[in-house]
Amino acid sequence: MTSNSLLLIAACLALVLLTATVGGVMLFTRVSEMRRKRIHPQSASNSALMAAKLENIQPADNFRNLFEVPVLFYALAAVAVAIHQVPTWLVACAWVYVALRALHSFIHCSYNKVYHRLAVFLASFALLVGMWVCFFVSIASANAV
């Protein structure tokens, strides 16, 4: 395995660890609030009931976000490693993507200013789309020769 492949997989691991951290924050805040308010778990058995009973739902929202668009990041990394095409620019962009997602999670789980969060989300989404397009172009042009 090349060092670029390993670095790309490490970026995926970093995003997995971010997801696990946000999951832990979600669990801690949810259980703490439910205990403090004496909410029986069954009375918050689905997301609608949970949102109606709890005030701090940002970590749960962010946790769900980490299973939406980042799936496209994991797919790109898997394809790149599988076909042994992991250019340095892809690794660098992957780490920038992970940093943007970490910043998005920080904003979402802390002060939650929507415009700040949106700007970071749009930057990460545009970067990811650009990564996919550039990756496709690079492998298509390599195969056209």
Structure report:
This protein is mainly α and 145 residues long. It contains 6 helices and no strands. The two termini are 25 Å apart.
Task: For this entry, give a set of tags.
145 residues; mainly alpha; elongated
| β-sheet strand percentage | under 5%
Rg over alpha carbons: 18 Å
Task: Count helical runs.
Answer: 6
Shape: elongated
Largest sheet: none
Report the uncertain regions: none
Helix content: over 70%
The termini sit apart by 25 Å
Secondary-structure-based class equals: mainly alpha
Mean pLDDT: 95
Task: Say how many strands there are.
Answer: 0
Order of helices and strands: HHHHHH
Short synopsis of the structure:
The protein is an all-alpha fold.
Set out the fold topology.
Elements: H1 3-37, H2 47-53, H3 58-65, H4 70-82, H5 88-109, H6 114-144
